[in-house]
Amino acid sequence: MTIKDIPSQTIDRLFTYFRALTCLIREGTETVSSKRLAEICRVSAAVVRKDFSYFGEFGTRGVGYNVKDLLDNIRRILDFDSPTEVALVGVGNVGRALLQHSQFELEGFKIALAFDKDPRKVGHKIGSVTVQDTKGMGKKIRSRGIDLVILAVPDSTAPGVAKSLAKEGLGAILSFSPCDLAMPDGIKITCVDLSMEMARLLYHSRLQSRLAEMRLEG
Amino acid sequence: MTIKDIPSQTIDRLFTYFRALTCLIREGTETVSSKRLAEICRVSAAVVRKDFSYFGEFGTRGVGYNVKDLLDNIRRILDFDSPTEVALVGVGNVGRALLQHSQFELEGFKIALAFDKDPRKVGHKIGSVTVQDTKGMGKKIRSRGIDLVILAVPDSTAPGVAKSLAKEGLGAILSFSPCDLAMPDGIKITCVDLSMEMARLLYHSRLQSRLAEMRLEG
DNA sequence: ATGTGTGAAGAGCTTCACAGCC
DNA sequence: GGCTGTGAAGCTCTTCACACAT
Protein backbone atom coordinates (compact mmCIF):
# COMPACT_ATOMS: atom_id res chain seq x y z
CA MET A 1 0.00 0.00 0.00
CA THR A 2 1.74 3.15 -1.21
CA ILE A 3 0.60 6.71 -1.76
CA LYS A 4 -0.15 5.76 -5.35
CA ASP A 5 -2.85 3.29 -4.27
CA ILE A 6 -4.82 5.99 -2.51
CA PRO A 7 -7.46 7.73 -4.61
CA SER A 8 -6.49 11.34 -5.16
CA GLN A 9 -10.06 12.30 -4.32
CA THR A 10 -9.58 10.70 -0.93
CA ILE A 11 -6.60 12.99 -0.35
CA ASP A 12 -8.60 16.02 -1.41
CA ARG A 13 -11.42 15.09 0.95
CA LEU A 14 -9.01 14.76 3.87
CA PHE A 15 -8.61 18.53 3.69
CA THR A 16 -12.38 18.92 3.86
CA TYR A 17 -12.57 16.63 6.89
CA PHE A 18 -9.72 18.53 8.45
CA ARG A 19 -11.58 21.80 8.13
CA ALA A 20 -14.85 20.32 9.45
CA LEU A 21 -13.05 18.81 12.44
CA THR A 22 -11.46 22.12 13.40
CA CYS A 23 -14.98 23.57 13.45
CA LEU A 24 -16.26 20.71 15.61
CA ILE A 25 -13.38 21.24 18.02
CA ARG A 26 -14.25 24.92 18.31
CA GLU A 27 -17.83 23.91 19.13
CA GLY A 28 -16.57 21.58 21.84
CA THR A 29 -17.70 18.36 20.17
CA GLU A 30 -15.63 15.39 21.32
CA THR A 31 -16.97 12.52 19.26
CA VAL A 32 -18.30 12.33 15.72
CA SER A 33 -19.78 9.50 13.65
CA SER A 34 -19.06 8.91 9.98
CA LYS A 35 -22.70 9.77 9.33
CA ARG A 36 -22.48 13.18 10.98
CA LEU A 37 -19.13 14.06 9.43
CA ALA A 38 -20.52 13.01 6.05
CA GLU A 39 -23.48 15.39 6.43
CA ILE A 40 -21.21 18.31 7.21
CA CYS A 41 -18.92 17.57 4.28
CA ARG A 42 -21.72 16.59 1.90
CA VAL A 43 -20.45 13.12 1.06
CA SER A 44 -21.72 9.63 1.97
CA ALA A 45 -20.90 7.93 5.27
CA ALA A 46 -19.36 5.00 3.40
CA VAL A 47 -16.96 7.39 1.68
CA VAL A 48 -15.86 8.82 5.02
CA ARG A 49 -15.12 5.40 6.50
CA LYS A 50 -13.42 4.15 3.35
CA ASP A 51 -11.24 7.25 3.15
CA PHE A 52 -9.92 6.76 6.67
CA SER A 53 -9.46 3.02 6.17
CA TYR A 54 -6.61 3.67 3.72
CA PHE A 55 -4.55 5.05 6.59
CA GLY A 56 -5.50 3.00 9.62
CA GLU A 57 -8.28 2.38 12.10
CA PHE A 58 -9.05 5.74 13.64
CA GLY A 59 -12.50 5.05 15.09
CA THR A 60 -14.15 2.94 17.77
CA ARG A 61 -16.88 0.54 16.64
CA GLY A 62 -20.22 1.38 18.15
CA VAL A 63 -18.98 4.81 19.17
CA GLY A 64 -17.45 6.85 16.35
CA TYR A 65 -14.32 8.95 16.03
CA ASN A 66 -12.65 11.05 18.69
CA VAL A 67 -12.53 14.47 17.06
CA LYS A 68 -9.16 15.49 18.44
CA ASP A 69 -7.43 12.18 17.67
CA LEU A 70 -8.87 12.09 14.17
CA LEU A 71 -7.70 15.64 13.52
CA ASP A 72 -4.19 14.75 14.72
CA ASN A 73 -4.10 11.75 12.42
CA ILE A 74 -5.17 13.77 9.39
CA ARG A 75 -2.70 16.51 10.23
CA ARG A 76 0.05 13.89 10.30
CA ILE A 77 -1.06 12.30 7.01
CA LEU A 78 -1.21 15.65 5.24
CA ASP A 79 1.98 16.88 6.92
CA PHE A 80 0.14 20.06 7.79
CA ASP A 81 1.86 21.21 10.94
CA SER A 82 3.69 24.45 10.79
CA PRO A 83 2.40 27.91 9.90
CA THR A 84 3.15 28.57 6.24
CA GLU A 85 4.23 31.84 4.68
CA VAL A 86 2.84 32.85 1.29
CA ALA A 87 3.28 35.87 -0.99
CA LEU A 88 0.63 38.05 -2.59
CA VAL A 89 1.03 39.60 -6.02
CA GLY A 90 -1.48 42.32 -6.88
CA VAL A 91 -2.97 44.64 -4.28
CA GLY A 92 -6.31 45.63 -5.80
CA ASN A 93 -9.72 45.05 -4.25
CA VAL A 94 -9.15 41.34 -3.88
CA GLY A 95 -5.56 41.60 -2.71
CA ARG A 96 -6.44 44.21 -0.11
CA ALA A 97 -9.26 42.08 1.27
CA LEU A 98 -6.89 39.15 1.58
CA LEU A 99 -4.31 41.25 3.45
CA GLN A 100 -7.01 42.31 5.91
CA HIS A 101 -8.42 38.80 6.25
CA SER A 102 -6.92 37.99 9.65
CA GLN A 103 -8.42 34.52 9.66
CA PHE A 104 -5.64 33.16 7.45
CA GLU A 105 -3.32 33.17 10.43
CA LEU A 106 -5.76 31.12 12.50
CA GLU A 107 -5.77 28.67 9.63
CA GLY A 108 -2.01 28.29 9.43
CA PHE A 109 -1.17 30.76 6.65
CA LYS A 110 0.43 34.17 6.69
CA ILE A 111 0.86 36.61 3.82
CA ALA A 112 4.49 37.53 4.43
CA LEU A 113 5.16 39.53 1.27
CA ALA A 114 2.94 41.69 -0.95
CA PHE A 115 3.82 43.10 -4.36
CA ASP A 116 2.27 45.56 -6.78
CA LYS A 117 3.68 47.33 -9.81
CA ASP A 118 1.68 50.51 -9.18
CA PRO A 119 4.10 53.07 -7.60
CA ARG A 120 1.18 54.66 -5.71
CA LYS A 121 0.65 51.42 -3.79
CA VAL A 122 4.31 50.59 -3.15
CA GLY A 123 5.38 51.52 0.37
CA HIS A 124 1.88 51.46 1.84
CA LYS A 125 1.31 49.18 4.80
CA ILE A 126 -1.86 47.10 4.71
CA GLY A 127 -2.55 44.81 7.63
CA SER A 128 0.95 43.95 8.83
CA VAL A 129 2.63 43.92 5.43
CA THR A 130 4.26 46.69 3.37
CA VAL A 131 3.61 46.58 -0.37
CA GLN A 132 6.80 46.24 -2.43
CA ASP A 133 7.54 46.84 -6.08
CA THR A 134 7.33 43.81 -8.33
CA LYS A 135 10.90 44.35 -9.49
CA GLY A 136 13.07 41.54 -8.09
CA MET A 137 9.96 39.84 -6.76
CA GLY A 138 10.99 36.30 -7.68
CA LYS A 139 14.29 36.59 -5.82
CA LYS A 140 12.64 37.95 -2.67
CA ILE A 141 10.04 35.18 -2.70
CA ARG A 142 12.63 32.46 -3.12
CA SER A 143 15.04 33.80 -0.55
CA ARG A 144 12.26 33.75 2.03
CA GLY A 145 11.59 30.11 1.22
CA ILE A 146 8.06 30.72 0.00
CA ASP A 147 6.47 28.03 -2.17
CA LEU A 148 3.07 29.54 -2.88
CA VAL A 149 1.97 32.81 -4.43
CA ILE A 150 -1.54 34.24 -4.45
CA LEU A 151 -2.02 35.92 -7.80
CA ALA A 152 -4.57 38.74 -7.69
CA VAL A 153 -3.58 40.88 -10.67
CA PRO A 154 -5.77 41.92 -13.62
CA ASP A 155 -6.65 39.10 -15.99
CA SER A 156 -4.59 40.54 -18.81
CA THR A 157 -1.30 40.56 -16.89
CA ALA A 158 -1.83 37.26 -15.07
CA PRO A 159 -0.34 34.92 -17.69
CA GLY A 160 2.89 36.90 -17.88
CA VAL A 161 3.37 37.07 -14.12
CA ALA A 162 2.50 33.39 -13.71
CA LYS A 163 5.03 32.35 -16.35
CA SER A 164 7.82 34.42 -14.82
CA LEU A 165 7.10 32.96 -11.38
CA ALA A 166 7.14 29.48 -12.87
CA LYS A 167 10.60 30.19 -14.32
CA GLU A 168 11.84 31.17 -10.87
CA GLY A 169 11.02 27.65 -9.68
CA LEU A 170 7.98 28.50 -7.61
CA GLY A 171 5.93 25.47 -6.55
CA ALA A 172 2.32 26.66 -6.61
CA ILE A 173 0.00 29.50 -7.57
CA LEU A 174 -3.49 30.29 -6.36
CA SER A 175 -4.87 32.56 -9.05
CA PHE A 176 -7.92 34.77 -9.21
CA SER A 177 -7.48 35.10 -12.98
CA PRO A 178 -8.78 32.08 -14.79
CA CYS A 179 -7.48 32.93 -18.23
CA ASP A 180 -4.96 31.10 -20.30
CA LEU A 181 -2.77 29.96 -17.46
CA ALA A 182 -1.28 27.02 -19.31
CA MET A 183 1.74 26.23 -17.15
CA PRO A 184 4.91 24.19 -17.56
CA ASP A 185 5.20 20.95 -15.60
CA GLY A 186 6.54 21.37 -12.13
CA ILE A 187 4.25 24.15 -11.03
CA LYS A 188 0.76 23.54 -9.67
CA ILE A 189 -1.96 26.07 -10.16
CA THR A 190 -5.51 26.45 -8.91
CA CYS A 191 -7.91 29.11 -10.14
CA VAL A 192 -10.51 30.68 -7.89
CA ASP A 193 -13.36 31.89 -10.07
CA LEU A 194 -16.42 32.95 -8.13
CA SER A 195 -18.53 33.72 -11.20
CA MET A 196 -17.95 30.23 -12.48
CA GLU A 197 -18.80 28.70 -9.11
CA MET A 198 -22.02 30.70 -9.05
CA ALA A 199 -22.87 29.61 -12.57
CA ARG A 200 -22.28 25.96 -11.64
CA LEU A 201 -24.33 26.27 -8.49
CA LEU A 202 -27.26 27.82 -10.30
CA TYR A 203 -27.17 25.17 -13.00
CA HIS A 204 -27.26 22.33 -10.49
CA SER A 205 -29.86 24.03 -8.35
CA ARG A 206 -32.17 24.63 -11.28
CA LEU A 207 -31.65 21.11 -12.59
CA GLN A 208 -32.58 19.76 -9.19
CA SER A 209 -35.76 21.83 -9.09
CA ARG A 210 -36.70 20.69 -12.57
CA LEU A 211 -36.16 17.04 -11.66
CA ALA A 212 -38.20 17.46 -8.49
CA GLU A 213 -41.08 18.95 -10.48
CA MET A 214 -41.00 16.10 -12.98
CA ARG A 215 -41.21 13.60 -10.15
CA LEU A 216 -44.27 15.36 -8.76
CA GLU A 217 -46.01 15.62 -12.11
CA GLY A 218 -45.36 12.17 -13.47
CA MET B 1 -29.30 9.96 -24.59
CA THR B 2 -30.68 12.03 -21.71
CA ILE B 3 -29.11 14.47 -19.28
CA LYS B 4 -28.65 11.52 -16.93
CA ASP B 5 -26.23 9.80 -19.33
CA ILE B 6 -23.84 12.73 -19.31
CA PRO B 7 -21.08 12.59 -16.71
CA SER B 8 -21.58 15.31 -14.15
CA GLN B 9 -17.90 16.10 -14.44
CA THR B 10 -18.45 16.83 -18.10
CA ILE B 11 -21.07 19.41 -17.11
CA ASP B 12 -18.71 20.97 -14.58
CA ARG B 13 -15.97 21.19 -17.17
CA LEU B 14 -18.27 22.94 -19.65
CA PHE B 15 -18.16 25.92 -17.31
CA THR B 16 -14.37 25.83 -17.40
CA TYR B 17 -14.34 25.69 -21.19
CA PHE B 18 -16.85 28.50 -21.24
CA ARG B 19 -14.59 30.72 -19.22
CA ALA B 20 -11.50 29.83 -21.23
CA LEU B 21 -13.34 30.57 -24.47
CA THR B 22 -14.43 34.00 -23.28
CA CYS B 23 -10.75 34.74 -22.65
CA LEU B 24 -9.77 33.50 -26.12
CA ILE B 25 -12.45 35.70 -27.66
CA ARG B 26 -11.09 38.71 -25.81
CA GLU B 27 -7.62 37.88 -27.21
CA GLY B 28 -9.06 37.75 -30.71
CA THR B 29 -8.43 34.03 -31.24
CA GLU B 30 -10.82 32.58 -33.82
CA THR B 31 -9.97 28.88 -33.83
CA VAL B 32 -8.84 26.54 -31.10
CA SER B 33 -7.86 22.86 -31.08
CA SER B 34 -8.82 20.37 -28.40
CA LYS B 35 -5.12 20.19 -27.51
CA ARG B 36 -4.82 23.92 -26.90
CA LEU B 37 -8.08 24.20 -24.99
CA ALA B 38 -7.01 21.22 -22.90
CA GLU B 39 -3.75 22.95 -21.95
CA ILE B 40 -5.56 26.06 -20.82
CA CYS B 41 -8.07 24.10 -18.76
CA ARG B 42 -5.53 21.56 -17.51
CA VAL B 43 -7.30 18.45 -18.75
CA SER B 44 -6.45 16.00 -21.55
CA ALA B 45 -7.34 16.62 -25.19
CA ALA B 46 -9.34 13.38 -25.28
CA VAL B 47 -11.48 14.65 -22.42
CA VAL B 48 -12.23 17.86 -24.28
CA ARG B 49 -13.33 16.05 -27.43
CA LYS B 50 -15.33 13.46 -25.51
CA ASP B 51 -17.08 16.14 -23.47
CA PHE B 52 -18.30 17.96 -26.57
CA SER B 53 -19.25 14.72 -28.30
CA TYR B 54 -22.11 14.21 -25.82
CA PHE B 55 -23.83 17.24 -27.28
CA GLY B 56 -23.02 17.19 -30.97
CA GLU B 57 -20.23 17.76 -33.47
CA PHE B 58 -18.95 21.25 -32.83
CA GLY B 59 -15.58 21.06 -34.55
CA THR B 60 -14.09 20.68 -38.01
CA ARG B 61 -11.77 17.72 -38.59
CA GLY B 62 -8.28 18.81 -39.42
CA VAL B 63 -9.00 22.34 -38.24
CA GLY B 64 -10.39 22.57 -34.72
CA TYR B 65 -13.23 24.51 -33.15
CA ASN B 66 -14.46 27.97 -34.04
CA VAL B 67 -14.20 29.79 -30.74
CA LYS B 68 -17.35 31.87 -31.12
CA ASP B 69 -19.55 29.00 -32.33
CA LEU B 70 -18.29 26.71 -29.58
CA LEU B 71 -19.00 29.35 -26.96
CA ASP B 72 -22.53 29.80 -28.32
CA ASN B 73 -23.11 26.07 -28.18
CA ILE B 74 -21.94 25.81 -24.58
CA ARG B 75 -23.98 28.84 -23.60
CA ARG B 76 -27.05 27.15 -25.03
CA ILE B 77 -26.32 23.82 -23.30
CA LEU B 78 -25.81 25.49 -19.94
CA ASP B 79 -28.72 27.88 -20.47
CA PHE B 80 -26.43 30.68 -19.42
CA ASP B 81 -27.82 33.65 -21.26
CA SER B 82 -29.23 36.42 -19.21
CA PRO B 83 -27.53 38.54 -16.55
CA THR B 84 -28.31 37.05 -13.13
CA GLU B 85 -29.02 38.96 -9.93
CA VAL B 86 -27.66 37.64 -6.64
CA ALA B 87 -27.79 38.82 -3.03
CA LEU B 88 -24.95 39.30 -0.57
CA VAL B 89 -25.28 38.65 3.15
CA GLY B 90 -22.47 40.00 5.31
CA VAL B 91 -20.57 43.18 4.43
CA GLY B 92 -17.21 42.66 6.11
CA ASN B 93 -13.83 42.62 4.35
CA VAL B 94 -14.86 39.91 1.95
CA GLY B 95 -18.34 41.28 1.30
CA ARG B 96 -17.01 44.76 0.64
CA ALA B 97 -14.44 43.45 -1.85
CA LEU B 98 -17.18 41.57 -3.68
CA LEU B 99 -19.35 44.69 -3.88
CA GLN B 100 -16.45 46.58 -5.41
CA HIS B 101 -15.53 43.77 -7.76
CA SER B 102 -16.96 45.27 -10.93
CA GLN B 103 -15.92 42.29 -13.00
CA PHE B 104 -18.94 40.27 -11.84
CA GLU B 105 -21.11 42.30 -14.17
CA LEU B 106 -18.88 41.50 -17.14
CA GLU B 107 -19.31 37.87 -16.22
CA GLY B 108 -23.10 37.97 -16.10
CA PHE B 109 -23.72 38.48 -12.38
CA LYS B 110 -24.87 41.49 -10.39
CA ILE B 111 -25.08 41.85 -6.63
CA ALA B 112 -28.52 43.44 -6.47
CA LEU B 113 -29.06 43.34 -2.69
CA ALA B 114 -26.67 43.50 0.26
CA PHE B 115 -27.50 42.81 3.91
CA ASP B 116 -25.73 43.20 7.24
CA LYS B 117 -27.04 43.08 10.78
CA ASP B 118 -24.60 45.75 12.00
CA PRO B 119 -26.60 49.05 12.26
CA ARG B 120 -23.42 51.01 11.53
CA LYS B 121 -23.24 49.43 8.07
CA VAL B 122 -26.94 49.62 7.22
CA GLY B 123 -27.72 52.52 4.90
CA HIS B 124 -24.21 52.84 3.51
CA LYS B 125 -23.81 52.64 -0.23
CA ILE B 126 -20.95 50.46 -1.47
CA GLY B 127 -20.44 50.19 -5.19
CA SER B 128 -23.95 50.67 -6.54
CA VAL B 129 -25.78 48.93 -3.68
CA THR B 130 -27.13 50.21 -0.36
CA VAL B 131 -26.66 47.89 2.62
CA GLN B 132 -29.95 46.84 4.25
CA ASP B 133 -30.75 45.34 7.62
CA THR B 134 -31.06 41.57 7.69
CA LYS B 135 -34.58 41.82 9.11
CA GLY B 136 -37.03 40.65 6.44
CA MET B 137 -34.11 39.63 4.25
CA GLY B 138 -35.65 36.37 3.02
CA LYS B 139 -38.78 38.09 1.80
CA LYS B 140 -36.85 40.80 -0.05
CA ILE B 141 -34.66 38.21 -1.73
CA ARG B 142 -37.59 36.09 -2.84
CA SER B 143 -39.70 38.99 -4.07
CA ARG B 144 -36.82 40.05 -6.31
CA GLY B 145 -36.70 36.54 -7.77
CA ILE B 146 -33.16 35.89 -6.59
CA ASP B 147 -32.05 32.24 -6.42
CA LEU B 148 -28.52 32.58 -5.11
CA VAL B 149 -27.04 34.20 -2.01
CA ILE B 150 -23.38 34.87 -1.32
CA LEU B 151 -22.84 34.23 2.37
CA ALA B 152 -19.93 36.23 3.77
CA VAL B 153 -20.76 36.39 7.48
CA PRO B 154 -18.56 35.25 10.41
CA ASP B 155 -18.18 31.48 10.70
CA SER B 156 -20.13 31.31 13.92
CA THR B 157 -23.31 32.88 12.49
CA ALA B 158 -23.14 31.19 9.08
CA PRO B 159 -25.05 27.97 9.94
CA GLY B 160 -27.99 29.92 11.40
CA VAL B 161 -28.28 32.27 8.43
CA ALA B 162 -27.90 29.42 5.96
CA LYS B 163 -30.65 27.41 7.61
CA SER B 164 -33.07 30.34 7.66
CA LEU B 165 -32.39 31.03 3.97
CA ALA B 166 -32.98 27.37 3.20
CA LYS B 167 -36.37 27.57 4.92
CA GLU B 168 -37.32 30.51 2.72
CA GLY B 169 -36.93 28.24 -0.28
CA LEU B 170 -33.70 29.70 -1.65
CA GLY B 171 -32.04 27.57 -4.33
CA ALA B 172 -28.32 28.02 -3.75
CA ILE B 173 -25.68 29.45 -1.42
CA LEU B 174 -22.07 30.33 -2.10
CA SER B 175 -20.51 30.42 1.34
CA PHE B 176 -17.21 31.71 2.60
CA SER B 177 -17.75 29.85 5.89
CA PRO B 178 -16.93 26.20 5.58
CA CYS B 179 -18.26 25.11 8.95
CA ASP B 180 -21.09 22.74 9.69
CA LEU B 181 -23.30 23.77 6.82
CA ALA B 182 -25.25 20.53 6.72
CA MET B 183 -28.24 21.54 4.61
CA PRO B 184 -31.65 20.11 3.89
CA ASP B 185 -32.30 18.64 0.46
CA GLY B 186 -33.44 21.15 -2.10
CA ILE B 187 -30.75 23.73 -1.50
CA LYS B 188 -27.33 23.54 -3.12
CA ILE B 189 -24.31 24.96 -1.36
CA THR B 190 -20.69 25.49 -2.31
CA CYS B 191 -18.02 26.61 0.12
CA VAL B 192 -15.13 28.79 -0.92
CA ASP B 193 -12.23 28.14 1.43
CA LEU B 194 -8.98 29.71 0.32
CA SER B 195 -6.92 28.28 3.17
CA MET B 196 -8.02 24.81 2.24
CA GLU B 197 -7.23 25.40 -1.42
CA MET B 198 -3.78 26.61 -0.47
CA ALA B 199 -3.23 23.60 1.74
CA ARG B 200 -4.27 21.26 -1.08
CA LEU B 201 -2.06 23.05 -3.56
CA LEU B 202 0.98 22.86 -1.31
CA TYR B 203 0.40 19.19 -0.62
CA HIS B 204 0.22 18.32 -4.31
CA SER B 205 3.12 20.59 -5.19
CA ARG B 206 5.37 19.06 -2.54
CA LEU B 207 4.31 15.54 -3.46
CA GLN B 208 5.21 16.28 -7.07
CA SER B 209 8.64 17.57 -6.07
CA ARG B 210 9.27 14.51 -3.95
CA LEU B 211 8.27 12.16 -6.76
CA ALA B 212 10.52 14.06 -9.19
CA GLU B 213 13.48 13.70 -6.81
CA MET B 214 12.88 9.99 -6.40
CA ARG B 215 12.86 9.56 -10.16
CA LEU B 216 16.19 11.38 -10.40
CA GLU B 217 17.80 9.39 -7.59
CA GLY B 218 16.59 5.92 -8.44
C1' DA C 1 -0.83 16.39 -42.73
C1' DT C 2 -3.71 17.63 -39.15
C1' DG C 3 -7.24 17.31 -35.82
C1' DT C 4 -12.09 15.70 -34.68
C1' DG C 5 -15.46 12.00 -33.25
C1' DT C 6 -16.22 7.68 -30.95
C1' DG C 7 -16.89 2.70 -29.62
C1' DA C 8 -14.36 -0.34 -26.76
C1' DA C 9 -11.11 -1.25 -23.24
C1' DG C 10 -9.31 0.00 -19.05
C1' DA C 11 -8.76 2.46 -14.74
C1' DG C 12 -10.49 4.42 -10.77
C1' DC C 13 -13.89 5.41 -7.46
C1' DT C 14 -18.08 4.49 -4.78
C1' DT C 15 -21.55 1.70 -2.93
C1' DC C 16 -22.96 -2.45 -0.85
C1' DA C 17 -23.50 -5.44 2.74
C1' DC C 18 -21.99 -7.63 6.45
C1' DA C 19 -18.39 -9.22 9.82
C1' DG C 20 -16.35 -7.43 13.85
C1' DC C 21 -16.21 -4.79 17.98
C1' DC C 22 -17.88 -1.71 21.75
C1' DG D 1 -28.13 -1.55 19.50
C1' DG D 2 -24.94 1.10 17.25
C1' DC D 3 -21.08 2.17 14.44
C1' DT D 4 -16.66 1.09 12.29
C1' DG D 5 -13.75 -1.44 8.83
C1' DT D 6 -13.49 -3.70 4.44
C1' DG D 7 -13.46 -7.06 0.48
C1' DA D 8 -16.20 -7.57 -3.55
C1' DA D 9 -19.41 -5.85 -6.76
C1' DG D 10 -20.96 -2.29 -9.46
C1' DC D 11 -20.63 1.88 -11.66
C1' DT D 12 -18.72 5.97 -13.74
C1' DC D 13 -15.31 8.21 -16.02
C1' DT D 14 -11.10 8.44 -18.78
C1' DT D 15 -7.93 6.82 -22.08
C1' DC D 16 -6.94 4.48 -26.24
C1' DA D 17 -6.58 4.09 -30.96
C1' DC D 18 -8.22 4.59 -35.21
C1' DA D 19 -11.81 5.80 -38.73
C1' DC D 20 -13.10 9.90 -40.84
C1' DA D 21 -13.09 14.60 -42.64
C1' DT D 22 -10.64 18.73 -44.63
Strand content of chain A: 15-25%
Write down the secondary-structure element order of chain A: HEHHEEHEHHEEEHEHEEH
- As a percent range, the share of helical residues of chain A equals 40-55%
Whole-number count of domains of chain A:
2
SSE inventory with pairings:
The structure is a homodimer of 218-residue chains.
Chain A: H1 8-27, E1 31-32, H2 34-41, H3 45-53, E2 59-60, E3 64-66, H4 67-78, E4 84-89, H5 93-100, H6 103-106, E5 109-116, E6 125-126, E7 129-133, H7 137-143, E8 148-151, H8 158-167, E9 172-175, E10 188-191, H9 194-217
Parallel strand pairs in A: 4-5, 4-8, 5-7, 8-9, 9-10
Antiparallel strand pairs in A: 1-3, 2-3, 6-7
Helix pairs in contact in A: 1-4, 2-3
The structure holds a DNA duplex (22 and 22 nucleotides).
What does it look like?
Two copies of one chain form a homodimer. By secondary structure, chain A is an alpha/beta fold. The first copy, chain A, has two domains: 75 residues, Arc Repressor Mutant, subunit A; 109 residues, NAD(P)-binding Rossmann-like Domain (Rossmann fold). Chain A is built from nine helices and ten strands. Chain A has a seven-stranded mixed β-sheet. In chain A, a hairpin with a 3-residue loop joins β2 and β3. In chain A, α1 runs antiparallel to α4. The longest helix of chain A has 24 residues. The mean pLDDT of chain A is 94. At the A-B interface, α1, α5, β9, β10 and α9 of A face α1, α5, β9, β10 and α9 of B.
What tags apply to this protein structure?
9 helices; globular; 2 domains; alpha/beta; homodimer; 10 strands; Rossmann fold; DNA-binding; 218 residues; Arc Repressor Mutant, subunit A; 3-stranded antiparallel sheet; 7-stranded mixed sheet
